[in-house]
What does this fold into?
Amino acid sequence: MSGMPHAKALWTDLARRFAHAKALWTDLARRFGQPTQADALTAPPWINHPEAAQILSTAAIDEDIRAAAMDLITKGFTIIRGVQDPALCAQTIADYQRYCAENADYVAQNKDSLGRELRLVNFHHYSDAALRLGANERIMRILDFAFGAEAAIYTSLTFKFGTQQPVHRDTPHFATWPDGYFFGVWTALEDIAPEAGPLFYYEAAHHFEVDAAAIWRHVRQSMPHLSETEQLHQALEIYNGEVISRAPSNGVNRTAAMRRGDVAIWHPQTPHGGSPASDPMRSRWSIVFHCAPKDKQVHQHDAFFRHAGDAEPPPRYGFTEGHGRAVALAGDVAFM
It folds into this structure.
């Protein structure tokens, strides 16, 4: 289900729309730290443009931001070492333990077959320490620049144990219009031991196309007996299967060696997952924030497959504010 003809047309259109890119980013560099115009978000993200590296070379920005942006352009993944306060990492773990003590019955109902807690969604709405990690100014300045717009926190997932999750892309679960206005921002709350199942990713595998529209048409036509919910599940399975089969031939498998306070940022199209854990009871304390521009809504896999056209679907959530950043009101604290 190749998306190459669509991709060529897309990039031809991008070339026209981004003819002024160098001037735009020179101006952005002068005004860095201020929000860009909202209508800039009607074009695909600049870091996805074929000349993104050249655009980056014209920007007068801090070298750490430049290095991170270049990694995201060329590798689809970057690691910022020691950027989070270790005390905030420790406090986030302590807050998690307090939350579990306060909600013991709920926690008992949300454990896997090994007796481990499931991942905890939106813990930053409970823990101020977690919210401070998500609003880290240095990280947010990198996202501001990569988005070309003011970054905000959408949701988060907190993990006590490794996911051992198969390779996947975040795109179907964090869909934007235009696509690509999303980054995963993963903080190690402790030194991650190899036996705990570290984060892994496929370097430079964020460019190959998977034609979601073709997948959805195929499912709708070949499985009319299924409910729409079941069809969406099948479409997601097919999409994930393509990512699993094609990632190894499009990138290099890397394991992210992470210590407490390190942060990994990945492009929404970067295939990644959780390595197998030789000691599944070994903790792998971490929190991942899902970030998008303040003026861009994030949608889920139902919209990813079903929504047609260039217009953005209707808004799903509002915002509050935390430590100088917009924070989406997109769900409560819950295990899943």
